[in-house]
Amino acid sequence: MKRFNKNSEDNHASISDFDTHSTVSRDPDRKFGFSSMRAMGIFVVFLMIFSVLFSVSVILKDPPSDAVLETSGARVLRINSNEAIGTEEKSSDTVDYPVDKLLYGLLTADFDESSCLSRYQSASYRKERQQKPPSYLISRLRSYEALHKRCGPYTESYNKTVEQLKSGHHSSTTDCSYVVWISFSGLGNRILTLASAFLYALLTNRVLLVDPGVDMTDLFCEPFPEVSWFLPADFPLKSQFASFDQKNPSCYGKMLKHNNFTNQDNFKLPPYLYVHLVHDYDFHDKLFFCDQDQNLLQKMPWLIMKTDNYFIPSLFLIPSFDHELSKLFPNKDLVFHFLGRYLFHPTNKVWGLITRYYKSYLANADEKIGIQIRVFDVGTGPFQHVLDQILACAIKENLLPEISNEEAIISPSGTSKSKAVLMTSLSSGYFEKIRDMYWEHPTVTGDVIGIYQPSHEEYQQTHKQMHNQKALAEMYLLSLTDVLITSSWSTFGYVAQSLGGLRPWILYKPENAKAPDPPCRRAMSMEPCFHAPPFYDCKAKKGIDTGALVPHVRHCEDMSWGLKLVHGHDQI
User: Fold this and answer.
1) How far lies 391's CA from each of 70, 243, 411, 440, 447, in Å?
2) How many other CB atoms are found less than 10 A from the CB of residue 33?
3) Which residue intervals of 331-464 are DSSP H helices?
4) Residue 209 resides in a domain
5) Taking the alpha carbons of 78, 80, 84, 88 in that order, is the dihedral positive or negative?
6) pLDDT, tens digit, 9 for 90 and up, residues 420-431
7) For the CA atoms of 458, 461, 464, 467, what is the dihedral angle to 10 degrees?
8) Segments forming the whole domain that contains residue 317
9) Residue 537 sits in a domain of what CATH number?
10) pLDDT tens-digit profile of 86-104?
């Protein structure tokens, strides 16, 4: 608009000069008419110039604030190759990308934004690598939300089904069926298993109810509008959750082992069944993944589930689910990415931890690199072989530059970059050594490397509220990086890579206190690994390699017996 004001002043000056000449004319009347026509012409030209400049200014002006655009569900994310998302200063190479706060329809707009800031703000913290969810998945999620609203806690259907549960009698006439997820294991496992339980609920038209445990309400917002997904405190079986294991009389695997279902004509179905899908589950528990058993389980109004496994890959091997899963997820390596972005929205307290750290340490970097370290060695770290492996991977894959012994490196003007490295580990030792290395020595490229670590809790404290809030914040921060290095077997890393839509470099698990060579490899897909899958052909009733049955289910890079989803042969 400054340019327009200047042009306006110039035009006014021209008109003034013209009027001055007209006053010294020898034929005032004649000249006045001529002058009026010229003045009118100039005025018309002036209006034309004004309209053009105004149009250009509207097109080129900065995008309006979030408050204006958020009513439409979309806004503009401005990303500069030399600046961070959300900074004030703009430069000539700024590019505008549309950002949809509803993630292209994945999320519903039926929430008060202030109650869960992360739900609609998270899109603006990610570069334009958002994947568009399939329209069929969006449709099924809206249908599930309607089901949850009709059957969720304290609805008429829920109350009726709970009364039947209390009676101790099985009923096949219930309006709604449920799967109850028991809060169990560490935070990474809980996130992965909860996504697995939700997909199972979606496939079997059940309502998912979540045992809040000690801290789930402090970590995550409600994902479904109007009706909570948290199991009510007065649920009749809640006090028994701690005793649910393979020896429980209601355990499905135990009942199969004792042939309780052999003669179904004389066997009276119980009001609920417990399915044990924990890593120590046995042959009979694993029959959960057979079609014949799913037919029986479908008759149960209540399934109580305990698991520490991301069991989604094996759902893709159940024939009756295959068609529906193909429509829900045409791209097989985006399953947890979509489910995670839909279900897991950090509470405002956790979101504050995330955004404050991001803006303080990561936002202004040209490139953000995540390094997630999980060490399974016994003893007190940091371990030199682990440090050597991390650096070997980062430098070999050109994620970090080598250091120079020269006193200073003069890089060509404008070629150096700033790189922010976000490290997460229970120990501060690896962070301190890498930070000091890049502080004490210049890089051969002239790049400036900043090393940051939000916390170092020293040991895992699964049931401490602030410990888990920090852990969730760090998973989320890792998901906001541009490239990622993760540790083998770590569910912490699985969550970060899948939420961020990142195919990480996976550090091989060290053996005999030696750094592996090669130190790492690129993951086939961003999907997590199912650590304890069944190896059984339900039809042939014999053992089989379940990682070789279909092209989209393969063995994991970091755990040779595990299973993970991939998309096509190009990633194998």
Assistant:
1) 43, 45, 23, 16, 16
2) 11
3) 335-343, 348-357, 384-396, 429-440
4) yes
5) negative
6) 999 999 999 999
7) 40
8) 129-333
9) 3.40.50.11350
10) 333 333 333 334 468 999 9
